[in-house]
Amino acid sequence: MDNHPETNAWLTSDGLDLKVEHSFSTGENCSFNTFNSPLTQSNIVIEQSVLQEGYLKGTIKVPFLKDDEPMPYTLPLSVDGFTHGYLDDGYQHFTVELNPDKEKLHVTMTVKQAILLIMNA
């Protein structure tokens, strides 16, 4: 742990105290709602053996919405494990253009809110 100044851990008669912050390097991936996802950051804070805060952060590219721009998300951690993840920016009220260079196939669509759900899970 000497090589990781962002990590602190100690054990007392009151229990475990732990603080871990980690920034991921490129190439460390997971899957978020079936999308390939580069991980960016994690954080865990435990005080007196009780989880106080925790999360895992990453980015996804959603082909239909923003295939050229990573969309950051957060997966909160609770005492029961990871909870439902969410897109950090909410992605509300933005416009998507399909086939902008084809007059007869051009579609402009306004997305009121981007919500990702796992179907058949």
Question: Can you characterise this structure?
Answer:
With 121 residues, this protein is mainly beta. It has a domain at 7-89. 3% of the residues lie in helices and 62% in strands. The chain has 1 helix and 10 strands. The strands form 2 sheets. Strands 1, 2, 3, 4, 5, 6, 7 and 8 form an 8-stranded antiparallel sheet that branches. It has a two-stranded antiparallel sheet with strand order 9-10.
Shape: elongated
Q: Average pLDDT value?
A: 84
The number of strands is 10
Which radius of gyration do the C-alpha atoms yield? 19 Å
Q: Determine the fraction of residues in helical runs and give it as a percent range.
A: under 10%
- The fraction of residues in strands falls at over 45%
Structural class: mainly beta
Major sheet:
8 strands, antiparallel
Q: Report the span from N to C terminus.
A: 39 Å
Please report the number of helical segments: 1
Low-confidence stretches: none
